[in-house]
Design goal:
This protein is of the alpha+beta class. The protein is 21% helix and 41% strand. It is built from 2 helices and 10 strands; from the N terminus they run H-E-E-E-E-E-E-E-H-E-E-E. Strands 5-4-8-9-10-1-2-7 form an 8-stranded antiparallel beta sheet. Residues 36-41 and 198-208 have low confidence and may be disordered.
C-alpha cells in the first residue's frame, strides 16, 4: 500500500496561521509594555498650600477671649506627573477641615477636580468658621506664632463614599500636617477610613 502524500497547506490556512502568530506576539508585547509601565509608574502625591488666613490677627482677634471667625484660603495640588496609567482626583462632595492643636477652626467644601496621567493640577478652596472658641493656651500660642510668621495648621480633606472592597465601603482622607500659613505646599498622606456597620434597632415589642 502506497504511503499517503502529505497534505499541502493552502494559502488561506497559511495566512490564518500567520495571523494567529502575529496576534500572540502582539499580545505578549502589550503585556510586556503594561508590566514596564506599572513598574515605572508612581502614585500621585497630594499637597495643600494655606495661602492666607483672615480673622486671626494677633492684636485684633487673638488678644481677647471673644469667639473667632477665621477664613482660610487653601490651594490643593495633585502631582500625577509620574503616573502613566490612571488619573488622580479629589472626588465629589469633598470637604476640608482646618484645626490647630486639635481644636477646630474652619471647614469648607473642596471642588471636584482631577489630574490626568503625567499632569499636575491645582484648585482653590475656602474654609471658614464662625463663633469658634479656642482655648486660652492655644490662643496665646497661635498669637505668638502668627506674629512671628510661623503659624501652621492641620488640614484634613474627606472624600466620602470613595469606594468599596472586601472589607466594606470607605472614605478617603487626605491628612496634611504642618501646613504653614502663607508658606509653601504641605504634603498630604492618604488614608482609608472604613464605615462602621450600624446594627439595626430592634422593632418595637421585639425581645432580640
Amino acid at each position: 500500500m502506497a504511503a499517503e502524500q502529505p497534505k499541502e497547506i493552502s494559502d488561506r490556512e497559511f495566512f490564518g496561521a500567520c495571523c494567529c502568530c502575529l496576534a500572540i506576539l502582539a499580545g505578549i508585547a502589550s503585556l510586556i509594555y503594561l508590566i514596564v509601565l506599572l513598574s515605572i509608574s508612581k502614585h500621585a502625591t497630594y499637597s495643600v498650600t494655606v495661602a492666607g488666613a483672615a480673622g486671626l490677627d494677633p492684636a485684633a482677634d487673638l488678644s481677647s477671649a471673644a469667639a473667632l471667625s477665621p477664613v482660610f484660603n487653601l490651594t490643593f495640588h495633585i502631582d500625577n506627573s509620574r503616573d502613566r496609567l490612571s488619573s488622580a482626583c479629589v472626588t465629589r462632595f469633598a470637604s476640608a477641615a482646618v484645626s490647630y492643636g486639635d481644636a477646630f477652626l474652619a471647614k469648607g467644601s473642596v471642588p471636584q477636580f482631577c489630574a490626568r496621567p503625567r499632569k499636575v493640577r491645582e484648585r482653590g478652596a475656602r474654609a471658614w468658621g464662625d463663633g469658634v472658641a479656642l482655648p486660652r493656651f492655644l490662643r496665646g500660642q497661635l498669637a505668638r506664632e502668627m506674629a512671628a510668621g510661623e503659624a501652621a495648621v492641620h488640614v484634613e480633606v474627606t472624600m466620602p463614599g470613595n469606594g468599596c472592597d472586601a472589607f466594606g465601603c470607605y472614605d478617603t482622607v487626605l491628612i496634611c500636617s504642618d501646613a504653614k500659613i502663607g508658606g509653601g505646599p504641605a504634603r498630604c498622606r492618604e488614608e482609608t477610613v472604613y464605615h462602621r456597620h450600624q446594627q439595626a434597632e430592634p422593632a418595637p415589642g421585639s425581645t432580640n
